[in-house]
Amino acid sequence: MDVYLLCLLVGGGLLAASLLGGHDHSLAGDHPEPGDLASWFSLRALVSFAAFFGLAGVLAGLFGIGGVGRLVVALVTGGAVGAFTAFAFRLARSRGEVGSAAGRLAGRTGRVLVPPAPGRPGKVAVTVAGQIEHVLARSDDPLRAGDAVIVLGTRGGVLDVGAWDGREA
């Protein structure tokens, strides 16, 4: 089995699974900064690269392109699709259009992991569907690590949280 067909089968299968309900994970941490070079290497971008590298290599072979030409076609195609995927998700994440669970956390409670400071978000842990999500957060309230918080909303992919005393409103 040649490497192009293998990449197409594995990358294409993983890409299909991702599109049918997978999640974006990053090799650079939970939420890499938009300007961080490592943020270009999300699992989704790498899988997109592999799938389209394989597809272009297989198609180039079918059209009679061989050797270095086939490799160049596969690398250019895979690189372009992988870069586009990374760029699109970085852009959407920076606008708050995608994120781990930010859109469904309003009203939930959690604990401060890293206290937010003026001009710098912190990090909170919130339980969603039995899983603990670590999410960037900002607050107008003075918070310390371990404090209970309630999620008020989200802006730009960062949660707005407030101190919570455990009582219902």
Features:
OB fold (Dihydrolipoamide Acetyltransferase, E2P), transmembrane helix, five-stranded mixed β-barrel, alpha+beta, 169 residues, 21% strand, 5 strands, 2 domains, protease, single chain
Q: Strand share of the residues?
A: 15-25%
The helix/strand order is HHHEEEEE
Helix content: 25-40%
Q: How many separate domains? A: 2
* Shape assignment: elongated
The count of strands amounts to: 5
What is the makeup of the main sheet? 5 strands, mixed, barrel
Q: How would you state the average pLDDT, rounded? A: 81
Q: Measured on Cα atoms, how large is the radius of gyration?
A: 21 Å
The oligomeric status of these chains comes to single chain
- Low-pLDDT regions: 24-34
Task: Please give the count of helices.
Answer: 3
SSE-based structural type = alpha+beta
Strand order of the largest sheet: 1-2-3-5-4
Question: Terminal Cα separation, in Å?
Answer: 63 Å
